[in-house]
Amino acid sequence: MSERSDSPGPQRIDLHSHTSWSDGTTSVGELYAQARTAGLDVLALTDHDTVAGWPELPAAVAANGVAAVPGIEVSAEHGHRSVHILALLVDPSPRSELAAAMAEARDARVDRARRMVELIAKDHPLRWEDVEAQVAGETTVIGRPHIADALVAAGVSADRSAAFDELLRASGPYYVPYDAPSPFETVRAIRAAGGVSVLAHPGSVTRDDELPLALLEEMIAAGLDGLEVEHREHGPNEIAGLREIAQRHDLIVTGGSDFHGTGKPNLLGENLTAPEMLARIEERATSGTRVLRP
Ligand code: AMP
Ligand code: FE
Ligand code: FE
Ligand code: ZN
Hints:
The protein has helices at residues 2-6, 28-37, 57-64, 97-121, 128-135, 144-153, 160-168, 183-192, 203-206, 211-221, 236-248, 275-284; strands spanning 13-14, 42-45, 67-78, 81-88, 196-199, 226-230, 252-255. It is an alpha/beta fold. The chain has a seven-stranded mixed sheet. Strand 6, helix 11 and strand 7 form a beta-alpha-beta unit. The longest helix is centred in the middle third of the chain and has 25 residues, at 97-121.
């Protein structure tokens, strides 16, 4: 715990990660133990559509000497496009508009997962119970990664990535969308809950055609605070383009690994956020939720 605080050099800050409360594979404690091994100073916990892991953060910070930014990766939808927005330092109250929207999205995810399993079951040996077996334990948010794990357990796919490529991709025959709030409502709800909104991996939104770039401008007009520029899904051209947009609108720029444990190849600390950007996030947040420091 002390050797790193003596060491000079910039703070290593990763603002995007998941645990088994959503579709990662580690507990919160294990996540921060791995963050320490990866040499991180600060890690944001951003499970999909839930704050279920937050109560474990104080103990994880104390045990590992890594600071925690409490966060959420909120699911939104524009047309049939899925849009993910990081809500950092937000008020976790279950009475907020944001919490109500997330509860609805979690319910919609269950129906949607059942429908996808019904479609897959016509062609492959997969039952709903197989998926349930994968989400047993602490998981509160069901997603395609759990269907992928069930397909791996049933011997249909080699691993999560293969399951997505072969069966679960959005362009595939078994994909079913689920209802989530619009990105504009989500940005406003995060602001209303005192949090800072950062569009997660914008490259997966802005890729392909021009409409999404207009979508990005509309989200900025709705109050979007930042862009996750440094992310493994972005190539050099995208990073340059996103940096230019961020500069033009004076947006916060972040970087994150999007770590999912063994569920994805992403490694903790593979993308980082500048300390001055974390300072801006802390200044911008108006909720009582603060960065937990060791
Ligand atoms: P869902 O929210 O249920 O539509 O599932 C999307 C989630 O699946 C994302 O948050 C990713 O964590 C995960 N995911 C997407 N593509 C892949 C992939 N190719 N391999 C593994 N996980 C993926
Ligand atoms: Fe995920
Ligand atoms: Fe995401
Ligand atoms: Zn993520």
